[in-house]
Design a protein that fits this description.
The chain has about 475 residues and is α+β, with helices and mostly antiparallel strands. Helices cover about 45% and strands about 20% of the residues.
């Protein structure tokens, strides 16, 4: 994926670079060519002025010396040629050539000026002309020469130069230009490749981190990423974390389900050994099977529920739920003959109701009361009261057992931590309670009972008073 992306980016860059450098080379070529032609024109103009300055009228005729200051005018086939045409020879090639050219430079032997047109006074004409397979730059200037007696005569001065010297300059320039452009192009290509390697390195790091997560060697994406892909990294980390939480939730739910089914199974197991009438057995079985069905349904709902959501349901009377659980646990722990009581502190005719799901309340109180019955000697006490605010209810569970050692403290709320390893259990009951209470943004505190001397577990959950 990333190699293909790098290849596409590099190919696109290469195409753009070729077009850019090619366009730059063509533009510089055109600019230099124009500059060469302009320089040639200016040079020819200087030669024209030198011819004008050398001209003189003798016997009503224009006269130029045979030897000029510019030596190339005097050298045969030097590449620089000059001529003066009079007005009587105006016309196209094929006119009266013997009257057209009144003066030719010494270098102009064999050079044809017959097709040069006469120009109006003051007008200049610069052209590229071809003669005998050779290319020339040619500049012509029309003038009016006032002779003796005020007689005016029209002449056209012509200077022609071989373009070979200028073409050599242009070829030399193009040779240097394309060498530099090619070298610059190679440097830019290497630089672009390094930039691509550096620019795509965060994506390679991202791919490596994802591979580590797939292998189970990492739990999240680590490393420094640029701002452009940081949102992607954060979203991927959230997705991975959510997947791990879901997996942990399913794992915990299975353990919670097994833990929750222990009490109904214990009741069923105890019912088979009851000395009472066999007629009571169907009622016990039906009630416990119904309870197990509710537990399974509740745990399945928890498994797919969002962990951060506060679940709000109808108001559930806490007294009724507590009495049902105490009745059930009295049957399970009938041999201990536990004395359980419910105290409504500060509540007279009012009823404390839990705002939430009844299954959550059953799970919380069932785990706490089961632990209290399991670890007590003879007495278990449940205290219900309203919290500091009218939206919080306090449920206090106490027993007269050995209590929870200080060195263990709040660690009993962690999954798998057990105080008494001599008793059967998985160490997940209090962890389930903590998860549910935290889901309602409540609090749970573990300590020692000042009244009974055993364990004291206090939870604060959303409640209302029903008068």
């Amino acid at each position: 994926m990333f190699t293909s992306l790098r290849g596409r980016l590099f190919s696109s860059t290469l195409i753009i670079l070729v077009l850019f450098l090619g366009g730059t080379g063509w533009g510089l070529h055109q600019a230099f060519t124009h500059s060469v032609k302009q320089g040639a024109q200016e040079q020819l103009q200087l030669h024209l002025y030198s011819l004008l300055s050398a001209g003189n009228e003798i016997d009503n005729s224009l006269y130029l010396p045979e030897v000029l200051q510019e030596p190339r005018f005097n050298t045969l086939s030097s590449g620089l040629y000059g001529a003066v045409l009079n007005g009587q020879g105006a016309g196209e090639k094929g006119g009266h050539e013997d009257k057209t050219s009144i003066w030719l430079s010494g270098s102009s032997l064999g050079v044809d000026f017959s097709f040069v047109k006469m120009l109006p006074p003051g007008e200049t004409q610069f052209d590229t002309v071809f003669d005998d397979g050779i290319t020339f730059y040619q500049l012509a200037l029309g003038i009016v020469w006032e002779g003796a007696g005020g007689i005016e005569r029209t002449y056209t001065f012509v200077v022609r130069e071989d373009t070979a010297r200028y073409q050599a300059q242009l070829a030399s320039f193009l040779n240097v230009l394309w060498k530099w452009l090619l070298g610059l192009g190679l440097i830019l290509l290497v630089t672009q490749w390094l930039v691509l390697q550096w620019g795509l390195s965060p994506l390679r790091l991202l791919a490596q981190q994802v591979a580590l997560i797939e292998k189970g060697e990492s739990q999240r994406l680590e490393g420094h990423f640029p701002l452009e892909i940081s949102p992607v990294v954060n979203n991927l980390n959230q997705l991975v974390a959510h997947e791990h939480r879901q997996r942990e939730r399913y794992k915990n739910t299975l353990g919670d389900l097994a833990h929750s089914l222990k009490t109904p199974l214990a009741v069923l197991r105890g019912a088979t050994s009851l000395t009472q009438s066999v007629d009571a057995l169907p009622e016990v079985v039906e009630s416990q099977v119904k309870r197990m069905d509710q537990i399974v349904e509740y745990q399945l709902k928890r498994a797919v529920a969002s962990s951060g959501a506060v679940k709000i349901g109808k108001a559930v009377v806490i007294d009724i739920v507590c009495e049902k659980l105490l009745t059930t646990l009295d049957k399970v722990y009938r041999d201990k003959k536990v004395h359980a009581s419910i105290e409504r502190e500060g509540l007279k005719a009012e009823t404390l109701k839990f705002i939430g799901d009844e299954g959550d309340l059953l799970e919380v109180m069932g785990n706490l009361l089961d632990n209290a019955y399991k670890h007590c000697v003879r007495e278990v006490k449940v205290t219900l009261r309203l919290g500091d605010t009218h939206q919080i209810g306090v449920l206090l569970f106490e027993d007269d057992g050995e209590g929870i050692p200080e060195e263990v403290g709040g660690r009993v709320l962690h999954r798998g931590v057990r105080v008494d390893t001599t008793m059967q259990g998985q160490g997940i009951g209090l962890a389930v309670v903590q998860d549910i209470v935290a889901g309602y943004q409540g609090e749970i505190n573990v300590g020692r009972s000042k009244v009974l001397g055993g364990a004291s577990i206090c939870i604060e959950i959303p409640c209302v008073i029903d008068r």
